[in-house]
Write a structure and sequence with these properties.
The strands form 6 sheets. This protein has a 7-stranded mixed beta sheet with strand order 3-21-20-19-4-5-8. It has a 6-stranded mixed beta sheet with strand order 13-14-15-16-18-17, with helices on one face. Strands 1-2 form a two-stranded antiparallel sheet. By secondary structure, the protein is of the alpha/beta class. 52% of the residues are buried. A hairpin with a 4-residue loop joins strand 13 and strand 14. It has 11 helices and 21 strands.
Length: 523
């Protein structure tokens, strides 16, 4: 069978011709380019392993997707106006609070689900995909209606991105009193910045079409879940206080920073008391009880849709009882360990406490002869969050790596969080070998991709990890953006054209961060 054309070794989507110009930048279409062959990387071995490299027994063939960021775009407890502070470094950790394409995001996720379902075999080792791994941040704002839609997208069911009243009530409506945001129906007064400055299109009715309920087929394979910071804290940063929880289901939506806010402490104020940012001028919106926040335990429970089974999407009965979100998932050939790196004290970056590290140490020791794949939301370089919420001490990355390297059985660490494609060797400082850290870009931001990851025996004492980028099944040209696949295509085109975060952002990575074959020594 012919492999689908949205696999990255067959073709790439890149910036194409200029279709409109604004006062500050150009808006480009997407075009297809030649695919990229798989590149071998030998940082954990040496080039001599090529002489004995053969594709032999396949141990796992999985899809990796991350950072879906399903968003309730009308929530009163979102702080889109903070995007105006993009030039102030004191607000860096709070950005972005809004993306022009986010109302279309459900269609991009569904398009990726369809694309993964259409891949009947891995492009390198040729085995069927047997599992998917979703490494966190399925939602954007820790809201129950967002979580329900993410589960429906991945499990199958009706997806509803709408909330609140009968009409769209958000920052992209024509009369919203801020011209920073793209208004596809046009602005009541003048042009918005994205249209006038960057050539974003006028597409009347697109928000209404994007927010209509639609069915998702769901993934046709088992998938593992993972807890991300956007599933714990407001917009991935602020603690959900009782006051903020009330605001989520309320009827006041702010549209400007409060007067007199101290910018030098703005970040920590948002981390501790995000509701303080709701004290500025606001507009009334329709309240919706389904916007209520969820707890970590409720996040785990949401994966058990069919009742009291002992395990669901990796989470166990023990997770449900204890309120934890880390676990082991064993297959015949691989041990998968999923960590919870979310810091309950707020902030975007991750942390790992001593209790979870000791649990990880035990799970590595009792893995038997199986190689180990670790999954977390955060990358190793974004695990430095020192904010405390009580409890056991936090572990620094060096101490964590000592534990991970000690057994010599970890070959791969899959993660997301940084919304970019990256592949890094993590050599063992005490001997040969080590593991590969593979970070996949988000679905919400350019390049809006996932990965196929194949793990196989590659010769005597040698395993290999083959990574291949996956685009969703939306066409390159969104056309009239009426059909679901074309709404997904428009989402991707808008994402590519965002200043700073789009085509020129570097988030797609280099050739060595995309389609790669990663040999690793195995005892």
């Amino acid at each position: 069978m012919t492999l689908p054309s949205f696999l990255g070794h067959q073709r790439r989507l890149v910036a194409g011709e200029v279709v409109r110009s604004g006062s500050a930048g150009k808006y480009r279409a997407l075009r297809t380019s030649d695919g990229e062959a798989h590149q071998f990387r030998y940082e954990l071995t040496d080039a001599s392993v090529a002489e004995r490299f053969r594709v032999r027994r396949v141990l796992a063939s999985i899809a990796h997707l991350t950072d879906l960021h399903f968003t309730d775009v009308q929530s009163p407890a979102r702080f889109e106006f903070i995007n105006r502070e993009y030039l102030d470094p004191r607000f860096r950790e709070l950005l972005p609070m809004h993306r022009p394409q986010e109302a279309l995001n459900a269609h991009a996720i569904a398009a990726m689900v369809r694309a993964i379902n259409a891949i009947d075999k891995g492009p390198v080792a040729g085995a069927p995909l047997d599992m998917a791994v979703m490494s966190g941040d399925g939602v954007d704002n820790a809201q129950s209606n967002e979580l329900a839609s993410v589960v429906a997208l991945l499990d199958g069911g009706e997806v509803c991105a709408d909330s609140g009243g009968d009409r769209y009530e958000g920052v992209q409506s024509p009369g919203w009193p801020d011209d920073l945001f793209w208004k596809p129906d046009g602005a009541v007064k003048g042009d918005d910045l994205m249209s006038a400055g960057y050539g974003f299109p006028r597409l009347p009715g697109v928000l209404e079409r994007a927010l209509r309920p639609f069915p998702s087929p769901g993934l046709r394979m088992p998938w593992l879940g993972c807890h991300g910071n956007h599933e714990e804290v407001s917009q991935g940063v602020g603690i959900v206080t009782p006051e903020l929880a009330l605001a989520m289901v309320g009827f006041h939506k702010p549209f400007r920073l409060p007067d007199g806010i101290d910018r030098d402490v703005a970040l920590e104020m948002f981390v501790r008391r995000p509701e303080a940012f709701m004290a500025g001028p606001d507009l009334p919106v329709t309240p919706d009880a389904e916007r209520r926040p969820f707890t970590r335990k409720q996040f785990v429970d949401s994966h058990f849709r069919s009742g009291a089974q002992p395990e669901a999407h990796g989470f166990t009965a023990a997770n449900r009882e204890e309120g934890t979100a880390y676990y082991v998932h064993d297959t015949a050939a691989i041990r998968f360990i999923v960590l919870d790196t979310v810091c309950a004290a707020g902030g975007a970056d991750g942390c790992l406490d001593e209790d979870q590290l000791r649990w990880l140490q035990r799970r590595l020791k009792d893995a038997g002869d199986r190689p180990v794949v670790i999954t977390s939301h955060h990358t190793l370089d974004t695990m430095g969050n020192k904010r405390r919420a009580g409890g056991p001490r936090y572990i620094d990355t060096d101490e964590m790596l000592e534990v991970v390297h000690a057994e010599g059985n970890v070959i791969l660490w899959l993660n997301g969080h940084i919304h970019a494609n990256a592949v890094k060797p993590r050599p063992n400082p005490h001997g040969n070998g080590g593991f590969w850290e593979v970070t996949t870009s988000s679905l919400v931001d350019w390049p809006c991709q996932a990965r196929v990851v194949e793990i196989f025996e590659a010769g005597e004492g040698l395993l290999a990890i083959a990574c291949t980028m996956v685009d969703h099944d939306g066409p390159a040209d969104p056309g009239d953006a009426v059909e679901p696949a074309r709404l997904a295509a428009l989402h991707r085109e808008l994402a590519g054209n965002i200043p700073i975060a789009g085509f020129e952002s570097g988030r797609a990575g280099t050739e060595l961060d995309r389609n790669v074959i990663l040999p690793v020594l195995w005892r």
